[in-house]
Design the sequence.
């Protein structure tokens, strides 16, 4: 990348070889088809030399082709033909006389030099003619133009393509450069025009139009990617401008009547042409003509009139606009500013100092911190800050407590030397937007707080804390309770009794559940109509949430009572038969399910049942209660497990739908010889296991599932138990517990039971731990395990106390530490 400058002023005349030489963008290309004719003529003359043998005559003839080409072709064509003629002379094999050779060389060389000089002179004349035509074109455009806009368009039409593939015109107004015209050639992407019009200022870049205008000198530059990235208004614009592949660019100030009024820029890209220093000199002359034409057309005066019209528009804008001088005094205010600043007139604002205006308001930033006059963007700009960012403030009118949200934006008007002349303030009233935004945010936050819990007391406390301090400095909820009013929740500092408090009802339809009391966030600001409307909406939402929470509490209490009513009683103490149970229903919120179990006295001794009602959750639990009580009642009356199962089948067949149930019913008969007999009947239930040492044996015969058919066969099996044997009854939730790859299954159950030892409560806990470690993901079926150890009459009292504790611990383990109830419950299959 190169740049030329500073440069001396061009002379009025364009004389001098650098002004009309071949090194110019106006010069035609050095070669053309004329070179072919010249080369052919030279070769023909060389053939004559071979045939005639007269070296001097041939040399004289070789002078003619370069001269002819110089008069009709390009300077490159002429130089090529002259060089070829000289080569022919040097390589002539017929030359014998040294003197003749020297004469021939001098003759051909002199003719070539003369021809080349003539061709260069023709090129210079062409360049001068083209430049003259361009100057005349500017004069014609000035004569034809009806105004500065038409003139700028005419000038750009001349600059493209004569002096560049793209061109722009900038003017200076108010100390700043403004781009007022852009033109691109026919081979350029049309989007480049918009990209060049959106160019960013580059005051600190010496290759920029700003620097050229400031230094009042023309520049010839070769832009690079870094310069294009800095000047482009966006990455997309930069990509368009880089695609031009700009070779060179001229930046020339426009001077008229001793002052710089702007600059024009012309750049070559797609045509691959390049500017020369001579073009820069001519461009300065051209710029003088353009500047004079623009000045005569009244461009600057018209723009000044446009600024005055702009001032009239500003005066009627909805946004408040004020202007401060360099000393900070207000020198202008439009009607909107007068109204926003609670003044009687613009003259009132102009007459008083800005401090008096500031005293009318309490001003805070977005976070509630107080602001001074010096913190406002206009004052920061006057204090020397180069760029004061916009500032959003919360403004409270001290006279009436009205709250407004105002966005302060500023811009600086500077003189030619950069001195600050004026500061323009634009104040946008965003009160309605901020109120709507705050209202939506508060409603969302309050709704989230109310929905976070179904406990009424906690929900109301969350609501009060959500409103403080953004909406109120203090919030409280008061509810009537047994003839008196109780404060159920509060947040913030309670105000004095004399302070204004806004009370809104917690309303649900025609029912009032309580009162929401609020104190304003600022002593200088009172609640307005919008605030009251928002508070009433908060009260309605709080009322609905409170009613829902109370209904949830009542329904939860009813549901808990019903679920606990379905739970079986605690295991009784069976002398000589310590027992333990593990039970966990499927589902996160269920305490009961389809599994059931019970131990009770029958006509001839102790009896026990374990069953599984097909289904899950509370629905299955209701049917499991029916099955349990039916089976127990039949067993207590008959003492016959088989008849009890048959009666269960008959009852289930009489229910709507097809309720299915698997069950095991057993009666215990302990003989005097230390051997116990078990009478066992099963309705499609997994077979019980008897653990003797490490040996595990399945006992009983599976019968038809209860509830499936009107007639079924159930027979009792006799099982002999010895002291130390452990009877294990379980539901299919144990076998169907899912691991990462497969289910728990009977093989794992047998292995686990054979490996466990110790009292039954310890064995149940161990099996529960293995199930918990095996399971992967959420459990899908209820799990019940009931173990009884046959010890005889002597071990009954020792096992009674430990059995209850083990049962509770095992149930909690199977429920993933979620339930701690001591009583076991039933679950789904």
Sequence:
């Amino acid at each position: 990348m190169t740049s030329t400058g500073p440069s001396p002023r061009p002379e009025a005349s364009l004389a001098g070889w650098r002004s009309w030489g071949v090194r110019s963008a106006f010069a035609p290309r050095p070669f053309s088809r004329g070179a072919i004719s010249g080369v052919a003529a030279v070769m023909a003359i060389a053939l004559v030399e071979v045939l005639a043998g007269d070296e001097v005559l041939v040399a004289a003839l070789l002078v003619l082709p370069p001269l002819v080409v110089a008069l009709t072709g390009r300077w490159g064509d002429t130089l090529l033909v002259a060089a070829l003629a000289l080569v022919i002379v040097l390589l002539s094999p017929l030359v014998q006389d040294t003197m003749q050779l020297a004469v021939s060389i001098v003759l051909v060389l002199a003719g070539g030099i003369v021809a080349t000089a003539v061709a260069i002179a023709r090129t210079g004349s062409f360049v001068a003619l083209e430049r003259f035509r361009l100057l005349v074109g500017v004069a014609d455009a000035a004569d034809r133009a009806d105004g500065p806009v038409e003139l700028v368009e005419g000038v750009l039409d001349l600059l493209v393509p004569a002096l560049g593939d793209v061109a722009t015109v900038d003017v200076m107004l108010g100390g700043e450069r403004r781009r007022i015209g852009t033109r691109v050639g026919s081979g350029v992407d049309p989007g480049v025009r918009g990209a060049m019009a959106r160019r960013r200022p580059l005051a600190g870049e010496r290759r920029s139009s700003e620097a050229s205008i400031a230094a009042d000198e023309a520049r010839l530059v070769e832009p690079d990617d870094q310069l294009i990235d800095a000047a482009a208004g966006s990455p997309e614009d930069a990509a368009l401008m880089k695609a031009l592949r700009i070779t060179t660019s001229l930046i020339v100030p426009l001077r008229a009547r001793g002052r710089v009024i702007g600059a024009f820029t012309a750049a070559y890209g797609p045509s691959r042409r390049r500017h020369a220093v001579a073009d820069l000199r001519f461009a300065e002359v051209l710029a003088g003509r353009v500047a004079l034409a623009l000045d005569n057309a009244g461009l600057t005066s018209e723009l000044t009139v446009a600024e005055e019209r702009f001032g009239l528009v500003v005066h009627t804008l909805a946004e408040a606009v004020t202007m401060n001088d360099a000393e900070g005094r207000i020198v202008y205010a439009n009607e909107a500013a007068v109204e926003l600043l609670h003044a009687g007139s613009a003259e009132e604002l102009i007459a008083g100092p800005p401090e008096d205006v500031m005293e009318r308001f309490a001003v805070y930033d977005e976070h509630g911190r107080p602001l001074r006059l010096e913190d406002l963007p206009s004052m920061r700009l006057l204090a020397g800050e180069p760029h004061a960012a916009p500032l959003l403030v919360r403004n409270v009118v001290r006279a009436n407590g009205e709250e407004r949200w105002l966005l302060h934006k500023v811009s600086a008007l500077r003189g030619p030397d950069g001195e600050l002349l004026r500061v323009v303030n634009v104040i946008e009233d965003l009160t309605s937007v901020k109120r709507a935004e705050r209202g939506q945010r508060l409603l969302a936050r309050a709704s989230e707080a109310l929905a976070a819990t179904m406990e009424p007391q906690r929900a109301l406390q969350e609501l009060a804390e959500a409103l403080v301090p953004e909406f109120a400095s203090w919030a409280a909820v008061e509810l009537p309770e047994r003839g008196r009013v109780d404060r159920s929740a509060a947040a913030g500092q309670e105000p004095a009794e004399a302070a204004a408090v806004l009370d809104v009802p917690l309303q649900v339809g025609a029912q009032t559940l309580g009162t929401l009391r609020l104190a304003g966030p600022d002593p200088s600001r009172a609640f307005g109509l919008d605030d009251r409307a928002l508070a009433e909406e908060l009260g309605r939402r709080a009322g609905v949430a409170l009613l829902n929470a109370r209904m949830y509490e009542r329904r939860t209490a009813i549901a808990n009572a019903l679920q606990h009513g379905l739970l079986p009683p605690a295991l009784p103490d069976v002398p000589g038969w310590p027992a333990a149970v593990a039970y966990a229903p499927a589902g996160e919120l269920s305490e009961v399910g389809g599994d059931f179990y019970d131990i009770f006295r029958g006509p001839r001794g102790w009896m026990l049942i374990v069953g599984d009602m097909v289904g899950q959750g509370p629905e299955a639990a209701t049917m499991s209660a029916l099955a349990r009580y039916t089976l127990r009642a039949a067993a207590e009356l008959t003492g016959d497990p088989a008849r009890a199962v048959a009666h269960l089948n008959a009852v289930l067949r009489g229910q709507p739908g097809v309720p299915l149930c698997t069950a095991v019913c057993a009666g215990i008969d302990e003989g005097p010889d230390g051997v116990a007999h078990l009478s066992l009947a099963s309705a499609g239930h997994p077979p019980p296991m008897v653990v003797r040492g490490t040996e595990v044996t399945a006992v009983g015969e599976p019968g038809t599932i209860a509830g499936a058919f009107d007639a079924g066969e159930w027979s009792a099996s006799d099982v002999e138990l010895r002291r130390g044997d452990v009877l294990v009854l379980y539901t299919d939730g144990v076998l169907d517990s899912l691991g990462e790859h497969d289910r728990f299954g009977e093989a794992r159950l047998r292995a686990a039971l054979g490996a466990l030892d110790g009292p039954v409560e310890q064995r149940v806990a161990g099996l529960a731990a293995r199930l918990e470690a095996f399971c992967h993901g959420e459990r899908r079926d209820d799990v019940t395990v009931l173990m009884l150890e046959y010890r005889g009459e002597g071990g009954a009292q020792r096992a009674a106390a430990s059995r209850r504790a083990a049962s509770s611990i095992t149930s909690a383990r199977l429920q993933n530490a979620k339930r701690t109830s001591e009583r076991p419950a039933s679950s789904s299959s």
In short: The chain has five domains: 31-130, 163-299, 316-429, 434-562, 574-814.
